[in-house]
């Protein structure tokens, strides 16, 4: 019987056929595919966990109550012993640059009078984009006189800028200064120029600094 010998070098397609039909080689390919699939699945799970952490906060890290609109949209600044000892005032600055003046006294507010200085602030009427009729004020310009059960205070602007409006509701509802000083009980809205604000900010302190200062004085 004559035996035929095939030269693989002359017929390379035969080697490919042998490799594809080699059971051992096919098992190795399947094992490799399974490992890659497992690694890919693990990577996808890790990415999903990271995304979940970014989108969903840890319940333990959430505050007991959500922040108010004032806390979200405004930054509070304080000025201590303004014009006299123990006379502290604070302002809220919005991202648009506007400033809200506020005042609070533990003794209870009994009245608010905007008729101070040379004019009655409550009759101020500002109009138009150019804020026509706005009162140009300095940091020590008087805004109103606040009377409490124990004392009387002159509340001042605290910042240099254009006085746009005062809160006339305080004339009939002075108690708003105590109950909602950061919202309906604000005193006035002032628009400082950027350069003026930068200079005024040097004399102001943040809420954290104010708390630290008060704790040190106790």
TrEMBL record:
InterPro entries: Abitram, GCV_H/Fam206, Single_hybrid_motif. Pfam families: GCV_H (PF01597). Signal peptide: none annotated. Coiled coil: none annotated. Residues 19-46 are annotated as: Disordered. It comes from the Eukaryota. SUPFAM superfamilies: Single hybrid motif. Belongs to the ABITRAM family. This is Protein Abitram. It comes from Arabidopsis thaliana (Mouse-ear cress).
